[in-house]
Write a structure and sequence with these properties.
This protein has 540 residues and is an alpha/beta fold. It is built from 21 helices and 14 strands.
Length: 540
């Protein structure tokens, strides 16, 4: 069915203010009070979209189906699916390795096929937009928020993977988003916490950082997302406190006028620390006047709506600016919801609006393929000895941002090895950590040891590398072993912080498929085919 959407000039001030906001739905599991509050807010404000974070997929689908039915202008359903549907809904969809695994595999055709299947899972679950791909380059080893979320530090490799991601997602009818414009890869601060400042010149950025963004746009990306990052060298007044989200020189001058981008420009989440300090409504207006089209996850969206509605009634210049933004949003809705996207994608058979659906994990074989192709080992052959991983003492180091329930190694090992597997969780408290390290010391001396390190980059974690407790756990596990293998399941550059054993395996992701690939390599049934997609000791 093709839906009819109004033109932006027909929207009332209140309707326009609502359409220009994308609100959040977090961890919804069917609570009746949450349901009623969400639907009542949608009725009052006509929100333009919803960004979904976790919860129960069936309950979420049911809620958003009702939202679509009662909305004159249906909301776009969006999400951060950097590692596939399973990132937010692990029981309902496939979870892929980190984006850097695609860079390690180095195969744009594989990336295109994988993201097409990811798109099909998303479309079947009713999602219209994926805030992906990350077009940033992994240039700064101390970057606490990009790291293996980026494909590579090589601009041409990253560009090829970014373009393939855009093509794959949009072939499945899901709009792709190049982020975080004009680049978050050189930062040493997490923009969830504070405002990063990038000192690089325009010439440097043009020669590297911007190449993947321009490739994604050339591939047809329908959205771009701004970075809450300041670029003083790109500001006419040299401002160090103006993030790209509030910069006319970047959001309008560079992206629109120089690069010719015609799609929708959304902000990064406006609840982040980098843009704190003003009222939510003032932040929203600054973003819109700079050239942002869509306000993602503002704090106090009801206040934003009220103040923006009043401003639209009183200020004809702001009304003209917002009409242009709203028309871009409505054009995206015509493509994603109104029939144009689904005409070229056969997967949206159970989309939100048709009721909840059980998602077939069509992407699972490709997750395994990507994980296998991303394995890099030094040396490139597994350790000698029969059934090495099943005879080794396994030590799993969890260093924040990941729980024991995400570890599947023991399911792949022989029962005896699985039973003896040791876990050091650095978030468990000092007494528990010290006791775990003492057990590791006792069990690993003169043993074959497989030390698996999980330290994923996460918002608000505040660091790119390992904690002191994690470094000590790795040292104790490997120092006196008769044979040791270090398996890095996260940012490959954490190796720089360790006195690593002579054998290292990088998987470029913590996903179950990556864990299985590591064991397959150690058993000798999977070759090391990937290449490190970043320079371990590079300076940005």
């Amino acid at each position: 069915m093709t839906l009819a959407f109004p033109t932006a000039d027909r929207l009332s001030a209140a309707e326009m203010a609502g359409q220009l906001v994308c609100i959040a739905l977090r961890d919804y599991h069917g609570d009746p009070a949450v349901r009623e509050a969400f639907l009542a807010s949608l009725d009052r404000h006509a929100w333009g979209g919803v960004i979904v974070f976790g919860g129960d997929l069936a309950a979420t689908g049911d809620l958003l189906a009702e939202a679509r039915e009662r909305s004159p202008i249906p909301p776009l359903v969006t999400g951060d699916f950097e590692r596939g549907l399973g990132q937010q809904f692990p029981r309902a969809g496939t979870r892929f390795p980190s984006y850097m695994a695609f860079g390690a595999a180095g195969d744009p055709a594989l990336a295109r096929a994988a993201w097409r299947e990811i798109g099909r899972e998303l479309a079947a679950a009713g999602f219209h937009v994926d805030f992906m791909p990350v077009a940033d380059l992994a240039l700064e080893p101390a970057n606490p928020i990009v790291a293996d979320r980026a494909a590579s530090d090589d601009p041409e490799l990253a560009a090829a993977i970014v373009a393939a991601t855009v093509e794959g997602l949009q072939a499945a009818g899901v709009a792709a988003t190049v982020k975080h414009f004009p680049g978050h890869g050189r930062t040493t601060v997490d923009s969830h916490e504070a405002l990063p400042v990038v000192e690089a010149s325009r010439e440097v950025l043009e020669a590297s950082d911007w190449i993947p963004f321009r490739a994604g746009i050339a591939a047809g990306a329908r959205l771009a997302m701004s970075a809450h990052v300041a670029f003083p060298a790109l500001e006419p007044d040299g401002a160090r406190d103006r993030p790209a989200t509030f910069s006319p020189a970047l959001a309008t001058g560079l992206l629109r006028q120089e690069w010719g981008f015609e799609g929708l420009l959304c902000s990064d989440a406006l609840m982040m620390g980098a843009v704190a300090g003003e009222s939510p409504a003032a932040l929203a207006r600054r973003a819109l006047e700079a050239g942002i089209d869509w306000l993602l996850y503002p704090p106090d969206p009801e206040r934003v709506h009220a103040e923006l509605s009043a401003a639209l009634e009183a200020d004809s210049g702001l009304r003209s600016t917002c009409e242009r933004a709203a028309e871009r949003l409505l054009a995206l809705k015509r493509w994603a919801i109104g029939g144009a996207a689904s005409a070229g994608a056969s997967a949206r058979s159970g989309a939100v609006g048709d009721g909840p659906v059980a998602i077939a994990t069509s992407a699972a074989p490709l997750a395994e393929a990507v994980a296998g192709a991303a394995v890099v080992a030094d040396p490139p052959a597994p350790p000698p000895g029969p059934a090495w991983p099943d005879r080794a003492q396994w030590v799993v180091v969890l260093d924040g941002g990941i729980g024991r329930d995400e570890i599947v190694l023991q399911e792949e090992l022989a029962p005896a090895a699985a039973k003896e597997l040791l876990v050091v969780d650095t978030t468990a408290g000092s007494d528990a950590v010290l006791a775990a390290i003492a057990t590791v010391r006792e069990k690993c001396a003169r043993a074959w040891v497989a030390c698996a390190v999980f330290s994923p980059v996460r918002a608000w974690k505040g660091r790119a590398g390992l904690s002191a407790a994690a470094r000590e756990a790795v040292r104790v596990a490997t120092a006196d072993a008769s044979e040791a293998v270090l398996i890095v399941f996260s940012n490959p550059r954490i190796l720089n912080e360790l006195e690593a054993p002579s054998r290292v395996v990088w998987t470029h992701g913590e996903a179950p498929a990556s864990q299985r690939a590591a064991i397959d390599f150690l058993r000798g049934s999977l070759p090391s085919l990937g290449r490190l997609p970043v320079r371990l000791n590079a300076n940005p």
